[in-house]
Amino acid sequence: MASAPPSRATASPASSSRRSQGLSASRTSGGVSSQNRGDTEMLERILEKPRLVVIEEPKDRGMRFRYECEGRSAGSILGVSSTDTNKTQPAIEIQGPIDHIKRVTVTVSLVTKDPPHRPHPHCLVGKDCAPGSGICVVSFNPHNNRRHSFANLGIQCVRRKELDLSLQKRRNQNIDPFQTGHSKGIEDLDMNAVRLCFQCDLEWEDGRKDSLNPVVSNTIYDKKATTTSQLKITCLNQYRGPCTGKTEIYMLCDKVQKDDIEIRFRRGSWKANGEFAQTDVHRQIAIVFKTPPYQDQNLTEEVEVSVVLRRISDQMESEPVNFTYFPHNPDPYGVKRKTAIKSDIGFREKPCLTEPSFQFPQPQTMMSPDKRLCPAQPVVPALVETCYNTAQDSNNGTDESAIINQLMETPELWEAIFDSSLSIPSNFEEEHDGSSAIGNIDLNFNQNFGSYTQDFSQFSDLQFNMLVNENQTLQSEPQDSLSNVVQVKKEETL
Questions:
Q1: Which domain CATH number covers 309?
Q2: Hey, which residues does 262 pair with through a beta bridge?
Q3: The pLDDT value given to residue 273
Q4: Which 8-state DSSP code applies to residue 332?
Q5: Rounded to whole angstroms, how far apart are CA atoms 9 and 49?
Q6: CA-to-CA distance for 241 and 325, rounded, in angstroms?
Q7: Which is it for strands 193-204 and 101-111: parallel, antiparallel or unpaired?
Q8: Which residues make Cβ contacts (< 8 Å) with residue 432, sequence separation at least 6?
Q9: Does 246 share its domain with 278?
Q10: Helix (H, G, I), strand (E, B), or coil: what is residue 260?
Q11: Which of its termini does the chain have fewer beta carbons within 10 Å around, N or C?
Q12: Neighbours of 213 (CB within 10 A)
């Protein structure tokens, strides 16, 4: 008969002893771990260090480095998010556990732009800077405020001959955040660019002191240096041009370096540079350039592009301004259009002067008292107009002397002039200037034909008829003598 297996209650003494030993061991280890867990967490909190973070970077451009001899404040470094209405300053913050930290001391100095960051000879000046120290030292309790803003912190530059003295002062102050050892010279220092370096020292409640790793800010460039200053387009003399380019434009801008600047036109993926030489940069503040041709030469409507100044060395760009390309017009003055309109309406040029038909009015020997002589219809002004128009027309082939001879042969003219029976009413109206119309007729006649009336008035009727017959004989002969030519010029002048 087989025996039954042993139950749990009836286990062997050896197995029972082993179980009891394991249970007691587990209880012992569990008690030690639970007791030391709290001590370990406390030790980790003590040994864990906070970290220093720059929460407000300094504004990289717009700050001017000033010399001490200028006798004025060096200004204040603004924060990168500063605006005209809301001024901000560079700020730091202590992040992490600060339960056992009593005090935080931050030392701010200037270092070079490029790594390894060496101490820079320029100095910091401001409210928290000791006079002549060139550095800024602030202390605060992180339990009250984890952040600190550096207000009224300026940069004061030193002259070339004072560089060694300024660097020696940094060595005496033990300011070398990255332990560069001051091995390099000052020849390769960039005097127009610096960085802020923050060194943080912690003081614990038990009296211990620790230092955090130094932190550097973004680069700050000198505003007055043309190699690092902010680029700005002030204005253009014109903001429009044809798509073919070659439009000459005058640009006013802030100071630029003539060998380190370019003018870029762009729209979407298209970009092109304005054409100018180094000699076209005038006094660093003006550039004369020509626009590049637009990518599409067959524009049908205006296209707006952006224009920027771009520094070649650091790829710095200015704020863009707008420029408009319009379609090319090969006939800007509209000559073809005007010619087409002229041909459509059938325009024909008219002759300048035409010779009016000569009609000599019959003289009136008797005038009724109620009729007045109209000064607008005198005999002599009509003759003068006829002679004037005839003399001005050089293409009709009419001889002026022949016309005068024709007038002399007209008996009505002389009858109107010498007839003493011509009566003028007593109430004849005078002109506005006080002279009568008849006086004007005689004056105009004397001005145009004075040389003839003075000669013929001395002859009798018989002598006058003889002169008329002689003139009729001379009319058939050529009138191209020198005296006649001179007479025609004299009449034109009158």
A1: 2.60.40.10
A2: 310
A3: 96
A4: T
A5: 57
A6: 5
A7: antiparallel
A8: none
A9: yes
A10: coil
A11: N
A12: 11
DSSP conformational letter for 291: P
- Residue 102 CB coordination number (10 Å): 16
Residue 354 resides in a domain: no
Last residue of a domain, one of 294, 326, 358: 326
Residue with tokens 């000052």: 186
Mapped onto helix, strand or coil, the DSSP state of residue 390 is: helix
164 and 56 belong to one structural domain: yes
| Co-location of 388 and 469 in the same domain | yes
User: Cα 53–193–181 angle (5° rounding)?
Assistant: 75
| Mean pLDDT calculated for residue range 23-43 | 51
- For residue 67, the cross-strand partners are 157
269 DSSP 8-state letter: T
Q: What are residue 249's DSSP bridge partners?
A: 289
- Asked whether residue 108 is assigned to any structural domain, the reply reads yes
| Domain encompassing residue 127 | 51-182+190-221
Q: Is residue 453 part of a domain?
A: yes
pLDDT confidence of residue 347? 52
Contact 100, 205 (CB under 8 A): yes
**pLDDT of 439 over the 90 cut:** no
Q: What separation in angstroms does the CA of 305 have from each of 143, 249, 267, 286, 320?
A: 54, 15, 5, 21, 9
* Residue 56 and residue 172 in one domain: yes
Q: Is the pTM of this model over 0.70?
A: no
Residue ending a domain, choose from 326, 359, 390: 326
Q: Evaluate whether residue 45 is within a structural domain.
A: no
| Residue 426 DSSP symbol | T
Residue spans of alpha helices (H) in 181-230: none
Same-domain status, 60 and 147: yes
- The CA-based angle 360-361-364, given to 5 degrees, is 145
CA-derived radius of gyration, the chain: 55
Residue position matching structure tokens 């010029």: 489
Q: Are 275 and 290 in contact (CB under 8 A)?
A: yes
Angle between helices 461-475 and 400-408 (to 10 degrees): 150
Are both 296 and 430 inside the same structural domain?
A: no
Q: Quick one: pLDDT at residue 436?
A: 47
Hey, how many other C-beta atoms are within 10 angstroms of the C-beta on 317?
12
CATH of the domain at 157: 2.60.40.340
Same domain, 404 and 427: yes
386: Cα separation from own chain's centroid: 63
- The one-letter amino acid code at 141 reads N
Looking at the structure, do residues 88 and 172 belong to the same domain, yes or no? yes
**Cα gap 167→66, rounded to integer Å:** 18
Q: Give the rounded percent of residues in the chain with a pLDDT score beyond 70.
A: 61
